[in-house]
Amino acid sequence: MDDFNPPTRLLMGAGPSNIHPRVANAMTAPLLGHLDPDFLGVMDDVREMLREVFQTKNAATLPVSGTGTAGMEAALVNVLEPGDTFVIGTNGYFGERLAEIGRRCGAEVVTVEHPMGSPVDPDAVKARVASLKRVKAVAVVHAETSTGVLTPLEPLAAIAHEAGALLVVDAVTSLAGVEFRADAWGVDVCYSGTQKCIGAPPGLSPITLSERAIEVMRARKTKVQSFYLDLTMLQDYWAQRVYHHTAPVSMIYALREALRLVLEEGLEARWARHAHSAAALYAGLGAMGLAIVAPEGHRVPSLTAVRSPDGVPEADVRKYLFAHHGIEISGGLSELAGKVWRVGLMGHNSTVSNVLTFLSGLENALAGQGFEVAAGAGVAAAQRSVRADLA
Ligand SMILES: Cc1ncc(COP(=O)(O)O)c(C=O)c1O
Description:
This protein has helices at 21-26, 37-54, 68-79, 93-104, 122-130, 154-162, 182-185, 211-218, 231-240, 249-265, 267-287, 314-325, 352-368, 377-390, and strands at residues 10-11, 60-65, 85-90, 108-113, 137-141, 143-144, 149-150, 166-170, 189-191, 204-209, 303-307, 327-328, 330-331, 340-344. With 391 residues, the protein is of the alpha/beta class. The protein is globular and about 65 Å long.
């Protein structure tokens, strides 16, 4: 077997995203035992910084070992018991996945469906919740990665709490890239993923639980069906070092360094950087005559879904960008498959220079498909947006 030397790619899809060299270096630090006192200090640092990034004081804040989907499962298997009513506002692929996980927990899942491309409407959720007898949890995907649509959380928290239910939030694509305030907004259970705006490789799913959520977990009549994702046991492991599983030590080094970078930059500055580069992308795409799926005011700065023009085979454009520019972007999911490109500007990668590189590559790729745009129009518009933003 030969050595594996992966090529350098610009990862501008739905994740993973390129990581800062400091994060890559952190992973090469000598391995420690997972109960080594020095590693226990690393675990404490990670929990403290995660609280800051989630903007919470929740004691139960930790990274679940596993990707974002493990966070989804952990959130639901700990809260839901068979027969519980679980309401979810769906507006894309990941909302549907949450609903499916809820069904596998044996819950009565009530979906409040929205078209892909729309935010979740709090009035529709409120009406549905009001029509039900007892709701255990309401869930929503903050940043729906299949469409790039952002849904405000505060109105949904009010609806859930009024009904005596918990608010469960998927912040996989939003956390550390767009304003997020777990405590101020009344979020009870929130999970994310490390490979997006946090800026680490895939493999961990940070999660936080409010006191309300802990009480619901304490009041369970049945055991959590997953041993691995039992958050009470995970909290005992992270807080009291009661052995549960072997933490992925090198991944946690990486997360610690990524979180240090997030906080060195400052959350507000990081959110602003994501907004700044996204504005340049929107300007460039607009000048090229391309339509963004998410309506203005509900766009996720870290992920933009853009419609491929009629007659342009979307996969060929992605292949061209990959082959000739070393740029990876993602295709569409579910009903948007074959119709959109999904462009990520996440964490370390959310820069104006990456936007300009992508737009010029896209222009080439589109010209190759016979879709002519005035040479440099996208790049020029993005540059104007950057100057206007900085003025
Ligand atoms: C909104 C959202 N939720 C959950 C997930 C699942 O995360 P993972 O693929 O890391 O398991 C993703 C992944 O892209 C996502 O975008």
